[in-house]
Write a structure and sequence with these properties.
This protein is of the alpha/beta class. The protein contains 14 helices and twelve strands. It binds nicotinamide-adenine-dinucleotide and prephenic acid (PRE).
């Protein structure tokens, strides 16, 4: 029986625990500083046993996952190394930055105990175990950062366990990880937050801003609701990369300012054209990258009952909808519904059914 200890049973830790829970030969122990999160984890059946201390959780553990904010990883690693861990135990983490923890672990881990950094490229603006789901990592990329001292069989053991997440495991060198993830994840969060705060200031003067903020604003700013504590740690930890990225961002914004100052319509057109071309090449249905779920857009007349009709249509055929959202809605004008599915099979079945019922469906 393998014992998996999850330290920090929130969104990421809880989702990992759910992937391992009830799998043959695996027992999941959880520890969290917040007893309420542990209580909720037990109630939801996320873990097999809730532990009152770190020591109890990791006692005899074969795998330990540190799922706490990035700023706590080093101190947790130190605490673990003062505990007598099971020989062969593999410690990993899910932190959003990898260079600093990899560097720290390289100088500290004891013989017979191994550290391999990890970062699943999936998540959400929500936090806490209530938002955890066993489906979070499905099809997402899951980065592992072994170094040259990591024995191959140890890496394989961790990768084999992580198969339960149904994620694609990729090996990435920690600095390269932080450079790329800084650009595709950390920078977008900073931009979203700056944008929301800018609009919030205008809204204080005129509340109509809030009312007119429609699909475009919501699409680009969802991630601005991320947990402040978690994001503070990530941004400070990846500070050097972010400073470089923000300088580059400022240059991009200055370019737009110049284009508008000179009324260069051609130039504006070209910026949108090249952005659209790059974005359309990105894999559409991958988690953790562009969209979190399998989304379908349906044109619908905006009248009461339409959501119920579509939900019933799908429900009658046992197609599971995971979310439904009105993207645009004005009286008597067609709106767009975003239907989200957990997997491709449900999505494809829904597309077939909706088309047969004469709905206009787009991906
Ligand atoms: N949220 C995402 O989208 C996402 C994606 C990938 C990686 N990550 C990384 O995952 C980690 C966890 O993030 P999350 O989104 O699950 O956050 P979360 O807030 O949902 O969960 C964190 C958990 O850690 C617990 N915790 C806090 N301090 C602790 C301590 N001192 N000891 C024990 N437990 C403690 C909290 O009570 C909470 O239950 C972070 O390092 C984050 O960078 C997050
Ligand atoms: O989808 C989201 O809401 C996320 O913020 C997930 C996201 C991302 O930026 O893609 C955020 C932080 C991570 O470390 C990994 C994934």
């Amino acid at each position: 029986m393998d014992k998996v200890a999850v330290i920090g049973v929130g969104l990421m830790g809880g989702s990992l625990a759910l992937c391992f829970k009830d799998k043959p030969g695996i027992r999941v122990a959880g520890y969290d500083i917040n007893p309420l999160e542990l209580e909720k984890s037990m109630k939801r059946g996320v873990i097999d046993v809730a532990c009152a201390s770190l020591e109890e959780a990791v006692d005899g553990a074969d795998f330990i996952f540190l799922c706490v904010p990035v700023g706590l990883l080093e101190q947790y690693l130190d605490r673990l190394l003062q505990i007598s861990l099971k020989p062969g135990c593999i410690i990993s983490d899910v932190g959003s930055t990898k260079a600093s923890i990899a560097h720290y672990a390289a100088s500290r881990v004891l013989p017979g105990v191994y550290f391999i950094g990890g970062h699943p490229m999936a998540g959400s603006e929500r936090s806490g175990v209530e938002a955890a789901t066993s489906l979070l990592y499905e099809n997402a990329f899951y980065v592992l950062t072994p170094d040259e001292t990591t024995p191959e069989d140890i890496y394989d053991r961790l990768a084999a366990l992580l198969k339960h997440t149904k994620a694609h495991i990729v090996r990435v060198e920690p600095q390269r990880h932080d450079r790329i993830v800084g650009a595709v994840s950390h920078l977008p969060h900073v931009i979203a937050v700056a944008l929301v705060n800018q609009i919030a200031r205008y809204n204080e003067e005129d509340g109509l801003y809030e009312s007119l903020a429609a699909g475009g604003f919501r699409d680009i700013t969802r991630i601005a609701s991320g947990h402040p504590y978690m994001w503070r740690d990530i941004l400070l930890n990846n500070r050097d990369e972010l400073l470089r990225l923000l300088r580059d961002w400022n240059a991009g914004i200055s370019k737009f300012t110049d284009l508008l100052e000179t009324s260069d319509g051609e130039g504006v057109y070209r910026e949108f054209e090249s952005a659209g071309a790059f974005r359309s090449k990105l894999p559409e249905r991958r988690k953790g990258m562009i969209i979190a779920l399998y989304d379908v857009y349906v044109d619908v007349p905006d009248h009461p009952g339409i959501i119920g009709q579509i939900a019933t249509l799908l429900g009658d055929q046992r197609i599971n909808l995971s979310n439904i959202q009105i993207i645009e809605s004005r009286a008597d004008v067609p709106g767009v519904l975003r239907l989200s599915f957990r997997n491709e099979t449900d999505m494809d079945a829904a597309i077939g059914l909706l088309k047969k019922s004469n709905y206009k469906v787009q991906l």
